[in-house]
């Protein structure tokens, strides 16, 4: 449920309009490709968890396999990924709350959300997990009902119109109306949307019997992700022609309005508020645990190793939480475009983290040649496919993404690299394991 909570958020409810407008019905192929890559990455992650039971996060799976620099890079870009996502989601949540509280200042709503989310994460991890379970559950129930209701309408019709079935997949310029360039452009959104699934690898240190639980969770979540992404997208582009959806609007709202569902604005506002709060909650967990393990490994100040009485990394959590207020500032100046402005770096970060996980799995297999393989499902062929596909997607995204986003990501990577080489050489090879 944590992985679903991290992956099913604004990227689906909000970002899917971008991928559909860039690719048309071919967005289905983009999500299927992303899901296949995710399957192989998560299988490799699960297998590494079995063979490295001492690791607390996937950063500590990467360190002994790819070296301290790869672990350092993974830790910092993943932390940056989630603090930026938290900033974007917090600003979005304040916007959704104004629907019911139009007279309350946005900054005050954002402050309330930030404080509530922070306090929630200060409790022991079980409280966080239970909260995330129920918030994720709301999203999943809504998506399941959307798919069931949508499939019925596909074959029965609505507003006296004949059943569209799947004619809209090709009747508005074909399946790929914008060609390969549009398909490549949409992959950044797709990868951003699926980002968060790898959060399973952040729970190794707080999961009972991770060698058994993590591989099982990794296998199961893949099919649920595909179920709650591919099927809703299929329903959307089949019920309504892709060029009628309109950029900047949630395609779910557009579909509900098209078929005449009453109170759609209030219902979807609640669902999308739940989605962004869930993603913020997940982001706090991931960012604080990554900063904590970076500190334990000597890649961040020891200041962040402090644990509360409930065994929560309180200093790492509070510092990560400070980025919630950055989201409020960005939202004020971005005039509603916070999601678009803050999506580029997390999209790049997800691709890079998955590349490192796939590469680490391949290295793990090469070190265990001749040893019996576990039944986690991880395979060399799958990881090689994921690695090559991710590198190709990365190149395609660089070629089709606005240059400012790529420049910002290059600057971030340069700063992280400089930070690594400015450390004491002894600390570079230090690892808490």
From TrEMBL:
Transmembrane annotation, as ranges: 28-49, 61-79, 106-128, 140-160, 180-200, 221-240, 260-280, 312-333, 339-362, 374-397, 403-422
Pfam families assigned: AA_permease (PF00324)
Keywords of the record: Amino-acid transport, Membrane, Transmembrane, Transmembrane helix, Transport
Recorded GO CC terms: membrane
The keyword Transport is assigned to this record: yes
Annotated localization: Membrane
Residue ranges occupied by any Amino acid permease/ SLC12A domain in the UniProt entry: 1-417
GO biological process terms, semicolon-separated: amino acid transport; transmembrane transport
Highest taxon of the lineage: Bacteria
UniProt topology in membrane: Multi-pass membrane protein
InterPro entries per UniProt: AA-permease/SLC12A_dom (IPR004841), Amino_acid_permease_CS (IPR004840)
Main subcellular location: membrane
Gene3D superfamilies per record: Amino acid/polyamine transporter I
UniProt keyword annotation of Amino-acid biosynthesis present: no
Protein name (record): Amino acid permease
Species the sequence originates in: Alicyclobacillus ferrooxydans
Organism lineage string: Bacteria, Bacillati, Bacillota, Bacilli, Bacillales
């Amino acid at each position: 449920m944590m992985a679903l909570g991290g992956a099913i958020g604004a990227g689906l409810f909000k970002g899917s309009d971008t991928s559909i407008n860039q690719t048309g019905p071919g967005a289905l192929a983009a999500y299927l490709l992303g899901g296949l890559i995710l399957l192989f990455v998560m299988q490799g992650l699960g297998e590494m968890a079995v063979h490295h039971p001492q690791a607390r996060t996937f950063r500590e799976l990467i360190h002994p396999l790819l070296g301290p620099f790869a672990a350092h890079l993974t830790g910092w870009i993943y932390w940056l990924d989630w603090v930026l996502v938290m900033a974007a989601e917090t600003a979005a949540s304040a916007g959704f709350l104004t629907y019911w509280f139009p007279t309350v200042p946005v900054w005050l709503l954002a402050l309330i959300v930030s404080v509530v989310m922070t306090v929630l994460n200060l409790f022991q991890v079980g409280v966080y997990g239970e909260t995330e379970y129920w918030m994720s559950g709301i999203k999943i129930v809504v998506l399941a009902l959307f798919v069931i209701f949508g499939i019925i309408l596909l074959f029965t019709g609505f507003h006296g119109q004949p059943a569209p079935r799947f004619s809209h997949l090709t009747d508005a310029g074909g399946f790929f109306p914008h060609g390969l360039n549009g398909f490549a452009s949409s992959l950044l959104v797709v990868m951003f949307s699926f980002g968060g699934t790898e959060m399973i690898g952040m729970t190794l240190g707080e999961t009972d019997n991770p060698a058994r639980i993590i591989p099982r969770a990794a296998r199961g979540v893949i099919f649920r992700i595909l179920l709650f992404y591919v099927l809703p997208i299929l329903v959307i582009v089949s019920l309504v022609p892709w060029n009628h959806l309109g950029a900047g609007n949630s395609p779910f709202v557009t579909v509900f309005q098209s078929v005449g569902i009453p109170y759609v604005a209030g219902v979807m506002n609640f669902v999308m508020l739940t989605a962004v709060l869930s993603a913020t909650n997940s982001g706090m967990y991931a960012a604080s645990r990554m900063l904590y393990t970076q500190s334990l490994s000597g890649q961040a100040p020891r200041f962040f190793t402090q644990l509360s009485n409930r065994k929560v990394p309180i200093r790492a959590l509070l510092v990560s939480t400070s980025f919630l207020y950055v989201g409020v500032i960005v939202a004020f100046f971005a005039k509603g475009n916070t999601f678009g402005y803050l999506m580029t770096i997390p999209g790049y970060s997800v691709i890079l983290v998955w590349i490192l996980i796939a590469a680490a799995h391949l290295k793990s297999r090469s070190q265990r040649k001749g040893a019996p393989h576990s039944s986690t499902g991880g395979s060399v062929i799958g990881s090689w496919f994921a690695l090559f596909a991710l590198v190709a997607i990365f190149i395609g995204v660089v070629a089709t993404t606005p240059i400012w986003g790529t420049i910002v990501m290059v600057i971030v990577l340069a700063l992280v690299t400089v930070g690594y080489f400015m450390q004491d050489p002894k600390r570079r090879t230090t690892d808490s394991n």
